[in-house]
Amino acid sequence: MIRTLLGLAAPLLVLIALLGMAQRQGRDRLQAVPALLIGTGLTASLALQRRRRRAALLQALRSEGCER
């Protein structure tokens, strides 16, 4: 349950930032930019980590299959 909530935290941060930007006018929109950048960065980082973990797992499964 907690992992699910943590997994949704970064996309929700991006959504909140976009909603904040949509509701504000002019220079006030800049206040939502840090949340947008952090949420986007976290999402990209998590996707990269997931890709690396899956590639390592696939490599381990392939090398294990060759040893038999």
Descriptive notes:
With 68 residues, the chain is mainly α. 84% of the residues lie in helices and 0% in strands. The protein has helices spanning 2-23, 33-67.
Which key features would you list for this structure?
68 residues; mainly alpha; 2 helices; elongated
List the helices and strands and how they pair.
Layout: H1 2-23, H2 33-67
Helix pairs in contact: 1-2
Low-confidence residue ranges: none
The major sheet is characterized as: none
Total helices: the number is 2
Q: Report how far the terminal alpha carbons are from each other.
A: 38 Å
Shape field: elongated
Number of domains: 1
Task: Bin the helical content.
Answer: over 70%
Indicate the radius of gyration in whole angstroms.
18 Å
Strand and helix order: HH
The overall pLDDT, averaged over residues, is: 91
Number of strands: 0
Oligomer: single chain
Q: What structural class should be given to the helix and strand makeup?
A: mainly alpha
Residues in β-strands, percent: under 5%
Give a quick rundown of the structure.
The protein has 68 residues and is mostly helical. It has helices spanning 2-23, 33-67.
